[in-house]
Amino acid sequence: MISQEMNDSLTRVGPGSDAGEVLRRYWQPAALLDELEQARPVVPVKLLGEDLVLFRDSEGELGLIGRHCPHRGADMCFGRLEDNGLRCPFHGWHFDRSGQCVEQPGEPEDSRMHEKIKSVSYPMVEKNGIIWAYMGPGEPPAFPNFDCFRAPGTHVFAFKGLWKCNWLQALEVGIDPAHASFLHRFLQDEDPADSYGKQFRDSAADTNIPMTKLLRDYPRPDIQVEETEYGMKLTALRHLDGGQTHVRVTNQIFPEAICIPMSREMTITQWHVPIDDENCYWFSMFTSFNGPVDKDLMREQRLEEHSLPDYAPLKNASNNYGYDAAEQASETYTGMGLDINVHDQWAVESMGAIQDRTQEHLGKTDIAIIRNRRMLRAAIAAVKEGREQDLPMHNGLDLATISGPVSNDAIAKDGDWSKATQMSDAERRAACPWDAAV
Ligand code: FES
Ligand SMILES: [Fe+2]
């Protein structure tokens, strides 16, 4: 349980806010590349409480500038995409991709006023299906050499989805290894052969035990947390009958991402990106260590559950997330279908727009949540005191040396779970068609 003041400090994201200033020191996913694949590549983007417009100019370069025209505030999303920039339809002021006003066609011919008019604009970079923006001061940081960034484009699929809640509670479900045994419990086990593109449907590593059964039968994981250069490594141990141990390694990537195994073939690296204080997008990068990702199938599976252009889930609070009492009695723990994204969405949205953490009671299995808040508090203090070098991944370390992060499921036959997880990861990387060496 924390004070209201601390809850505000950790959750709010607008310019000048405590957590918002920390988040602004890291690249943020702004949009999927897919979103610009249209005849008129102009899309609204709301990020960290700021209203922006993303467009591709006629040179094929990206611009991310203020959504409201610096003249009198009209919506630039309706702008005319012409003359290698975006022109406001109200009085024709024209902006290039850097946000500079280059023309004011209604002002006197000799006016040089436009030289002093500039919209906000942020640097951007495209990586494996996601357009990233840097909204902080100074030069943007480098990207770490994570698997999702270094794998070739054929082996990474990116998608996003809207959750109507604060980003921190969305992140906290991802660093909570205990919930999988309950929230995602299936009372029946599906055929693991039908598992492509889905989480927790495979059989557990080196066994014929469906993950669903393993999670159900062993609900009390022993959770270990280790701080790393990028954030935290979480190890959840489930001690099975017969002396074997199931080891699940997941990660938190500071300040707002997780990296988790999805199946034996793929990992998910997922950012929980604040739209504003009360809404966020998850942006996932599904990375294959085997063959190329079947992107058409992955996209189709996910588009069936979301509506465009907002990537809003079709199951949501307005239809009780598809809740069905009969299903809850016999098939799933939640009664909300088999898509585990819906379960997580219900869990985090049902807390309220910003979870009231003055009323919570954290247990032993919430250890990573506690550690993460501590890291965020330290980062907030560091930014306030001008100690940027104390932020994770800002300490002068060559980010190209940060790889992985290792995330997998493994079975230790003899109790040496640390060795088992390392060996299973090394095997996967050795067989990987792209250079996945760590
Ligand atoms: S409000 Fe945009 S040009 Fe006038
Ligand atoms: Fe979950």
UniProtKB/TrEMBL annotation:
CDD domains: RHO_alpha_C_DMO-like, Rieske_RO_Alpha_PhDO_like
UniProt keyword list: 2Fe-2S, Iron, Iron-sulfur, Metal-binding, Oxidoreductase
Region (Disordered), start-end ranges: 417-438
One matching Pfam family: Rieske
Gene3D superfamilies xref list: Naphthalene 1,2-dioxygenase Alpha Subunit, Chain A, domain 1 (3.90.380.10), Rieske [2Fe-2S] iron-sulphur domain (2.102.10.10)
Presence of the UniProt keyword Metal-binding in the record: yes
InterPro entries: Cholesterol_7-desaturase, LigXa_C, Rieske_2Fe-2S, Rieske_2Fe-2S_sf
Database matches in SUPFAM superfamilies: Bet v1-like, ISP domain
Location of the Rieske domain: 27-133
Protein name: Ring-hydroxylating oxygenase subunit alpha
Organism taxonomic ancestry: Bacteria, Pseudomonadati, Pseudomonadota, Alphaproteobacteria, Rhodobacterales
